[in-house]
């Protein structure tokens, strides 16, 4: 009977749980799903850094590929960071094969904004020789299993993968003008900020629940994602339409996002410590 009711009247089914301050999966309204991730430089052999992140059932993998290129004329002392999110048909029945859909494009733009606004990496750090040579970091994030909240998982995977990157030493031979790559000498990227995304679904225009599943996203009247950095500063607010939020509700989201940031940072630090070479 419960399964039948959930299928025929999914919103009313959810409302009965929300009245009791819980959700069908057993979580409280403000409770996140278990987050697990690991750095795995060997899992994508062609990548210079990679990470796999699981947020409940939502699973994404991020691979970072570094290439050399000439800096842009108007940014002679800067490199490039190019993010891309793929939501292939294998990860959920809601997506189709072919060119990137609207959701994938919006997610890619969100990650690009996070990179720009948070200054996770200073693009000046990617410059090798002013006006001549710089690194381009292609950050490909692929969803393997979609169960909601792709933005939090993608931001997490990006940060984890970037912290896993080791770039070879590169110099320019003054006599030949050619670049020389020393694969034996590698250095990690300088990660200047640790942006963390925290997403909320809005139910019936007023009720906030964190870390929504795919089903909860479908039933919600809106969503909002808050990105904060190490100092508790706001990097960005992503609100793609839907129910409006009062100032008090938005402040509540920001406060919860700052708390979430501390938890995620602890998790990342713990993983980094465990994989340091002996």
Automatic annotation (TrEMBL):
Segments passing through the bilayer: none
Keyword Ligase: no
InterPro entries: ExoRNase_PH_dom1, ExoRNase_PH_dom2, ExoRNase_PH_dom2_sf, Exosome_comp_Rrp42_subfam, PNPase/RNase_PH_dom_sf, Ribosomal_Su5_D2-typ_SF, Rrp43
Organism domain of life: Eukaryota
GO molecular function: mRNA 3'-UTR AU-rich region binding
One annotated Gene Ontology cellular component of this protein: nucleolus
Domain annotation Exoribonuclease phosphorolytic: ranges: 39-168, 195-258
Cellular localization per UniProt: Cytoplasm; Nucleus, Nucleolus
Key words of the record: Acetylation, Cytoplasm, Exosome, Nucleus, RNA-binding, rRNA processing
Gene3D superfamilies xref list: GHMP Kinase, N-terminal domain
Any GO BP annotation: nuclear mRNA surveillance
Family annotation (SUPFAM superfamilies): Ribonuclease PH domain 2-like, Ribosomal protein S5 domain 2-like
Similarity remark: Belongs to the RNase PH family.
PANTHER family: EXOSOME COMPLEX COMPONENT RRP43, EXOSOME COMPLEX EXONUCLEASE RIBOSOMAL RNA PROCESSING PROTEIN
Name the UniProt record assigns to this protein: Exosome complex component RRP43
């Amino acid at each position: 009977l419960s399964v039948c009711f959930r299928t025929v009247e999914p919103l009313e089914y959810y409302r009965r749980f929300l009245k009791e301050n819980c959700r069908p999966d057993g979580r409280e309204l403000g409770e996140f799903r278990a987050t697990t991730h690991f750095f795995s430089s060997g899992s994508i052999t062609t990548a210079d850094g990679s990470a796999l992140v699981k947020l409940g059932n939502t699973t994404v993998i991020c691979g970072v590929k570094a290439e050399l290129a000439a800096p842009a004329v108007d940014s002679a002392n800067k490199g490039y960071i190019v993010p891309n999110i793929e939501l292939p048909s294998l990860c959920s029945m809601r997506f189709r094969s072919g060119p990137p859909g609207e959701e994938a494009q919006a997610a890619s733009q969100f990650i690009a904004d996070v990179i720009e606004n948070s200054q996770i990496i200073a693009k000046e750090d990617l410059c090798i020789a002013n006006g001549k040579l710089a690194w381009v970091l292609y950050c490909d994030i692929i969803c393997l299993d979609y169960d909601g909240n792709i933005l939090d998982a993608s931001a997490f995977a990006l940060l984890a993968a970037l912290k896993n990157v080791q770039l070879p030493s590169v110099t320019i031979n003054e006599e030949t003008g050619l670049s020389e790559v020393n694969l034996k000498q590698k250095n990690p990227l300088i990660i200047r900020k640790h942006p963390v995304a925290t997403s909320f679904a809005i139910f019936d225009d007023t009720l906030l629940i964190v870390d929504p599943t795919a089903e909860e996203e479908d039933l919600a009247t809106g969503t909002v994602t808050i990105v904060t950095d190490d100092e508790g500063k706001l990097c960005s607010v992503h609100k793609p339409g839907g129910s409006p939020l009062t100032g008090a509700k938005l402040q509540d989201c920001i406060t919860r996002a700052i708390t979430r940031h501390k938890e995620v940072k602890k998790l990342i630090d713990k993983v980094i410590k465990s994989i340091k070479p002996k």
